[in-house]
């Protein structure tokens, strides 16, 4: 009886190197998430935990805390040799489903942001929510075709992959929605950029809006390109980074919007002329570019909030009630 052919040593070494590269890249992405969490935790205490917890806060906390908990389990499945093949076959379903769900939470927050920029336009909200629902449905169909990567007995790692044409929808579908969100954000803010004039307002806009969306779009684009252009054992290498950079950027977006919409972010009535001018710029950003989502986070259960307004005729600041711009119940 003929013996089985010897394994291709070069292919085996290449596969081992690719597996280690994927694990290191995944671990580095997780360290990035935790490091950013530590950096921004003081802002989270002040702008989330010390404020009233609303439906929008709940979305933020889901993204903020369920994502690292989910990823700790994924890291263990990637590195712990006690995970058997049978366990991995069942686990990869959880891995894919939880990732798709958490990305969906992040995109709900981004949809609320765009909805705010368009003045609570139900057409925009309906359009984006239809895309979001379609993304969830298509991702679920792609996930159904996935399976665990078969590895030699001496290698460890529960990795989701797939050979069906539907499987790439796990990355293509979020890319389509993220592209629409980014384009809609840029389109809406053209007028705001022209009206902002000097750089401080433009800086706030770039920091709190389009720049974050652009980073998310690039990460998902990179992940999609890698999947279609890389060898079979490297196709999923960018998935972890794409998910975690999305979670990081969305968390920072929410924290910065809450900072811009909080009363303490505005100068007092007795400030200098620079403070008065800066307050006018902040008022513009709060009510048009940043704000409607930020205001909504503070007034989810109330129609009225109070904001400081600069009166150019009298040269004084006054407090006036402002109707919340996004009265959505979640």
Average pLDDT, to the nearest integer? 77
Shape: globular
Largest sheet: 2 strands, antiparallel
Spans of 5+ residues with little confidence (pLDDT < 50)? 264-292, 294-313, 315-330
Percentage of residues in helical conformation: 55-70%
Task: Tell me what you see in this structure.
The protein is mainly alpha-helical and 330 residues long. The protein contains 10 helices and 4 strands, in the order H-H-H-H-E-E-H-H-H-H-H-H-E-E. The strands form 2 sheets. A two-stranded antiparallel sheet has the order 1-2. A two-stranded antiparallel ribbon has the order 3-4. It is globular.
In short:
The protein is 69% helix and 6% strand.
Write the layout of secondary structure elements.
Blueprint: H1 9-49, H2 55-79, H3 85-117, H4 122-144, E1 147-148, E2 160-161, H5 169-188, H6 190-196, H7 199-229, H8 239-261, H9 273-289, H10 291-298, E3 304-311, E4 316-323
Antiparallel strand pairs: 1-2, 3-4
Keywords for this entry:
mainly alpha, two-stranded antiparallel ribbon, 10 helices, 4 strands, 69% helix, disordered C terminus
């Amino acid at each position: 009886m003929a013996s089985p052919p010897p394994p291709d040593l070069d292919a085996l070494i290449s596969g081992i190197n690719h597996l280690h590269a994927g694990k290191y890249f995944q671990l580095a992405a997780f360290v990035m998430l935790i490091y950013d969490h530590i950096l921004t935790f003081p802002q989270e205490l002040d702008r989330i935990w010390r404020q009233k917890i609303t439906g929008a806060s709940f979305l933020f906390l889901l993204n903020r805390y369920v994502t690292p908990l989910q990823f700790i389990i994924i890291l263990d499945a990637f590195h712990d040799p006690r995970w058997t093949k049978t366990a991995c076959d069942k686990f990869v379903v959880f891995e894919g489903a939880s990732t798709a769900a958490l990305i969906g939470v992040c995109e709900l927050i981004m949809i609320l942001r765009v909805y705010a920029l368009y003045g609570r336009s139900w057409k925009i909200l309906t359009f984006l929510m239809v895309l979001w629902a379609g993304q969830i449905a298509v991702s679920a169909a792609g996930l159904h075709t996935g399976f665990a990567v078969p590895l030699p007995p001496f290698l460890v790692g529960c990795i989701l992959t797939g050979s069906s044409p539907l499987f790439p929808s796990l990355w293509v579908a979020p890319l389509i929605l993220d592209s629409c969100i980014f384009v809609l954000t840029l389109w809406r803010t053209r007028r705001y950029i022209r009206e902002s004039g000097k750089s401080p307002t433009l800086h706030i806009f770039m920091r709190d809006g389009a720049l974050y969306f652009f980073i998310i779009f690039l990460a998902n684009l990179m992940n999609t390109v890698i999947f279609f252009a890389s060898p079979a054992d490297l196709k999923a290498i960018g998935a972890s980074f794409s998910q975690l950079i999305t979670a990081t950027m969305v968390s920072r977006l929410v924290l910065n919007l809450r900072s811009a919409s909080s009363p303490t972010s505005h100068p007092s009535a007795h400030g200098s002329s620079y403070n008065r001018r800066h307050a006018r710029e902040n008022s513009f950003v709060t009510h048009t570019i940043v704000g409607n989502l930020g205001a909504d986070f503070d007034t989810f259960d109330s129609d009225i909030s109070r904001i400081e307004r600069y009166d150019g005729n009298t040269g004084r600041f006054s407090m006036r009630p402002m109707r919340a711009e996004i009265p959505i119940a979640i």
